[in-house]
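Thread: S-adenosylmethionine complex, take 2
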Amino acid sequence: MRMMAFADCLGGKPRYVGVDLFGSLTEELFVREVRAKKKRPRTRAETMDLLRETLGEDIALRMTLLEGFSRDVLAELINAKMQFDLIFIDGGHSYDVVRDDWEKSQQLLAPGGVIVFDDYPNYGVGRLVHEIDPNLWDARVLEKTDRFQNIFRDLDPAPELDFQLVQVLRRAG
Ligand SMILES: C[S@@+](CC[C@H](N)C(=O)[O-])C[C@H]1O[C@@H](n2cnc3c(N)ncnc32)[C@H](O)[C@@H]1O
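Output below.
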């Protein structure tokens, strides 16, 4: 929402497509992939209402929310030959989901576009980012800005973790 509002301030009129399980997120998947209570998603309809109330109709009309597993929805976007200038990966946190999001995002990235990962180096994100081929991709870990309580202490005993963004650009040639 902040990025769309900021783009509007700058005079841009970007379109946004968001993919989430929304109301289809089961309790089992919430515990495995998300856990953070504040991140429990609203339903798709509630989220759309919130976007309209917060950003106004003009911006909300440029936002599309798609409900489903990212592996299925991203495959549909690939089949529809959609391309995106900015792809932000912040869905399921398990390695398998992050890897699938990364593989499909590469096919959805427009020339000159950027893929950003949230939550590095934690959960499945750290392992995946370390596997990115440096000959093909320029992955840059951005500076530390967030430190939160660790809600996956069964996987890592640290009480708190730093969370960083990673910016990934396709190398020329
Ligand atoms: C940590 S939250 C982040 C949501 C949003 N990026 C934000 O910052 O508010 C993770 C979201 O990923 C969704 N999610 C988890 N696994 C998913 C999957 N396999 N496909 C699509 N969405 C998924 C959850 O429903 C949840 O809303």
